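INFO batch 0412 | record 1 of 1 | parsing
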Amino acid sequence: MTAAGQPGRQEARRDGLSIGAVLAQLRGDFPDVTISKIRFLEAEGLVRPGRTPSGYRQFSPADVERLRYVLSAQRDHYLPLKVIKEQLDAADAGAQPPAPVPAAPQLPRRLVPLGDGSDPAGLPAAADFETGPDTRLTQEDLLDQAGIDDAMLAELCQYGLLRPGAAGFFGPESVLIARTVKAMTEFGLEPRHLRAFRAAADREVGLLEQIVTPAYRHRDADAKARADEVVRELAALSVTLHTLLVKAGIRGVAGD
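INFO prediction complete | emitting tokens
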């Protein structure tokens, strides 16, 4: 049995979809996806389309389903590709999960949850890391969508947790940041207590820039797609590392 339960993957399929047709199907839900991205996911073994005798890719409906799962797991759960591939490999093997995975995209087949079934960092679903350049929020949009008031927004900006652009607009990730800080205030924390998070994030951004900036300078589209994936992977891993270090530190304070 081959990936996603599809027999005969090595045989050319006459009724498969071209990569352009697959892109057209995915673009509605994943506007940032590109042909280079699909090729990259194929190169990484996340999807293995068949080939015509002349060498053209032919994707089955199950291949498109796998791509949707991969893209959803990255966008909504911030999972690294390595984790996604392990889940898909487990699904291909027909493994039975001990319990359903909450709030996760549906796999093409059943899977074995990794760890406790949450994302690697144990965090709620995060916003897509690659947000479109034209997605901008006014102050009123942000207040409405995040459920905060003017006073809290002023504090978030004062302590660097939110940074509007030169034209005064906020990025789409600002809503999730504001909601997260609002949830933390229920535990007695205030925006001024969270300045260390901004400082740590800025240091991580500087570190990632050193790694990916050379790749982004290439004009080749495939190189840019690979750089995007490197950013995703490193961002997800940095979130995981940060969470594990905090958990370990709290455990040490508790004396466990």
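INFO post-check: The chain has a mean pLDDT of 76.
INFO record closed
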